[in-house]
Amino acid sequence: MDVGLVLQAMSDAVDLGYTTLSVSGGEPMLYPDLQEILLEAKALGMSTSVITNGSFPESAYAKLEGLVDVIGVSLDGNKDLHNRIRQNITAFDKVDRFLDFSSKYFSATGIAYSLSDPSWEDLPEMLDYADSKKVTLFQVQPIESFGRARDKGCVALASANLKRAFIFVNTVRCEYPFSIQMNVFDKASAIQTLVRTDTTEPAADCIDLLVMDEKGRILPYNYGFDERWMVADLRKISLKEGWERFRLDKLPAFGSWCKDSVDFTSGMIFTPSEPFFNRSQKKLSLVED
Question: Which of 78, 103, 160, 230 could disulfide-link 274, Cβ–Cβ 3.0 to 4.6 Å?
Answer without folding.
Answer: 160
